[in-house]
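Input chain follows. Return C-alpha cells only.
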Amino acid sequence: MSRKATRASVVAAFAAVYIVWGSTYLAIRYAVQTMPPLLMAGARFSVSGAMLYGWARMRGAPRPTAAEWRVAALTGVLMLCLGNGSVGWAEQRIPSALAALIVAVVPLWMVLFDWVMPGGERPTLAVVAGIVVGLAGLVVLVGPEQIGAGEPVDVVGALVLVAASMAWAFGSVYNKRGERPESATMSTGLQMLGGSVALVGGGLALGEGHQAAITHISAASWAGWLYLVTFGSLIGFTAYIYLLKEVSPAKASTYAYVNPVVALLLGWAIAGESITARTLVAAAIILGGVALITVAGQAKAPGRHAPASGQPAESPSRE
C-alpha cells in the first residue's frame, strides 16, 4: 500500500464494493423490467462518466492523454459493456441473487490473467485453495439438479454471466497495468464514457432502440436506474478502481464472493425471490472461498508495487 493510502480509506472502499455493489444486482433487476438492458447501462454510465470527468477536471486533474483514453476505452468496453452490460441482459432470465452468485467466478479469472501476463504474480496455494472452494460452490449452484434441491438454473443466462465475469476480470487486470491518470476519479470517468459508447452502440445494433419508450418506463425502473448511477457507479466503481491500485487482484476481487450474500438477502426481503436449500449451501461454500482468499491475499507493501507507465508508486488517487 502506498504511503498516502490509509487503512481507513481501504476499509471504506471494500465496504462500498461489498455492500453497495451487492445491492446493485437488485437495482438492475428493477431497471431492466421496463428498460432495454444495454441502453439502460449505456445511459447510466454516460451520465456517471460525465459527472466524474467534470468533477476531476474541477479538482485540477489534467486532460487525459491519448494513451490514457485508449486504455480507458478498452477497459470500459471489457468491464462495462461486456461485463456489466451482460449482467443486465442475463437478469432478464436469472434472479438477481443467482446472477451475483454466478459472477463469483471473477476471482479465478483475475488471478489467472494476472499470473499469465508479463511480470504477473503467481498465486499462493492458499489463494488457489480459496478459488477452488469458491468454484465448488458455483458447481453446487448451477450444476445438475441432483447436486442439490431446487430448480435448475437457465444455462444460457449462466454462460453469459461466466463470459461476462471473464471480460470484467481481464479488464480489471489490464486497467491495473495500463497507462491511466493518477486521479482515480478521472480514470473511472474515462472508462465509463468509453464503455457507454460501446453499450449504446450494442443496444442499437440489437434493436433496443425500438424498446426505449420513455413513457413506458415504470417508477421502479427509474428508481433502480438512479440508484445505479449514484451508488453503483459514482461510489462503488470509483472505490473498486481505487482498490485495484492499492491491493492485490485476488483481494480486490473478493467482492464477487460477498456481493451474492447481500444480493441474496435483498432479493428475498424486497423482491420476494426464493431462497432454496441449494442456494444456501452454495452461498456457504462460496463464502468459505472468500475467507481463504481474504486471509491469503496480501495488500501491497509501501513502495513495492510497480508504477503504471511512469506513475509514481507513492501517488495514488487524491479523490
